[in-house]
Amino acid sequence: MQGTMQGDVDAVVIGRNEGARLGAAIAALRADVRRVVYVDSASRDDSVAVARAAGADAVVALAPPLSAARARNAGLQALADDPPEFVQLVDGDCVLVPGWIGAGRAALSARGDLAAVFGRVREEAPEATVYNRMQDHEWATVVARGDSFTGVFLGRYAPLLAAGGFRADLIAGEEGEFCDRLRAAGWEVAPLARDMATHDLNMQRLGAFWRRAVRAGHAFAQVGALTGAWRAERLRAWLWAAVLPLVALAALSVAPAAALSVAPAAALAVAPSAAQAGAAHFINWLGPEAMRQPARGF
């Protein structure tokens, strides 16, 4: 044991087909935590061997159905035999920055009403692709909004379990729903104005982006139906997916020639502002879970 906080901080790392990046995620934890539990979601690569080699104290194999929520819950339950005061949750494609756990632990200790704290995540290679660049921008909005952590945060173990953990039937969007339940139980979550981790999105293809967008849309609908959350986002989805196409079809039926002549100019006029709005509010449409690679995500 090398750190000074290992006696009351454990870590849960989840992953699927993360490979070498998983080793970096676990290695970054070892100096600051007592135990590392890795939950593997049916990886087809050598993730389990990588986790053990990097210093994971326990490996939990998650059986289908697979989801990030179920994986995190399994990791939390694996710590129940000797529960810590604090637990750091980490996705297998993220690496904590030095000093984060110490700062987060100090913040939690200073405020008895805090169940969890989270900080700024940065993409390892934001300039590599447009998807990486957008995601790097959106990590900043998570801290700016401050109402919900993502899959990476430091929390008090007992209230996380007492609140029931992550809702296991949600395929995405489980973090915000969990934060709502924590607040309903009298707890708060808070962002810290400091870096927390780096993230390796490495998204190269439009197809990967599209599949994650579809998955996030499912989360908007499912969580919205359960809790009423994301009302504005769901209304925008209806606007773009239903209302505007119907208006366009109506215009074509009434005056097809005029509609066709106006459409290209309208698209060019809207494109710059639409692109800017999409970048500025990207997480509202997709969320961090939506940005996982298909082969690595749930």
Structure description:
The structure is a single chain. The protein has helices at 20-27, 47-54, 68-78, 100-110, 130-145, 157-162, 174-184, 206-227, 231-254, 256-280, 282-285; strands at 9-15, 36-40, 58-61, 86-91, 94-96, 114-123, 153-156, 188-199. α2 links the parallel β2 and β3 (58-61). α1 runs parallel beside α2, α8 packs across α9 and α9 (231-254) packs antiparallel against α10. The relative contact order is 0.13. The protein is α/β, with parallel strands linked by helices. The chain has an 8-stranded mixed beta sheet, sandwiched between helices. The protein contains 11 helices and 8 strands. The protein is 49% helix and 17% strand.
Determine the mean pLDDT: 85
Q: Name the CATH architecture of the largest domain.
A: Alpha-Beta Complex
Count of discrete domains: 2
Cα distance, first to last residue?
Answer: 33 Å
Structural class, by secondary structure, is alpha/beta
What would CATH call the homologous superfamily of the largest domain?
Answer: Spore Coat Polysaccharide Biosynthesis Protein SpsA, Chain A
Instruction: Report the portion of residues in β strands.
Output: 15-25%
- For the secondary structure, the number of strands is 8
Number of alpha- plus pi-helical segments: 11
Order of strands across the widest beta sheet? Answer: 3-2-1-4-7-6-8-5
CATH topology call of the largest domain: Spore Coat Polysaccharide Biosynthesis Protein SpsA, Chain A
Q: Please give the largest β-sheet.
A: 8 strands, mixed
| Shape type | globular
H/E topology pattern: EHEHEHEEHEHEHHEHHHH
